[in-house]
Amino acid sequence: MGRVIAIANQKGGVGKTTTAINLASSIAAAEVNTLLVDCDPQSNTSSGLGLAKDPERISTYHLLMGAASAEESLQKTELEQLWLIPSHKNLIGANIELVDAERREFRLRDALAPLRDRFHYIVLDCPPALDLLTLNALVAADAVLIPMQAEYFALEGISELLDTIERIRASLNPSLTIEGVVLTMFDDRTNLAQQVTAELSRYFGDKLCKTTIPRNIRLAEAPSHGQPALIYDVRSRGAESYIQLAKEILGRSGLTVQELPPPVDEAQEKQVVNAPKWKRWMRERNKLITINIVDR
Ligand SMILES: Nc1ncnc2c1ncn2[C@@H]1O[C@H](COP(=O)(O)OP(=O)(O)O)[C@@H](O)[C@H]1O
Ligand SMILES: [Mg+2]
Question: pTM for this one?
Answer without folding.
Answer: 0.92
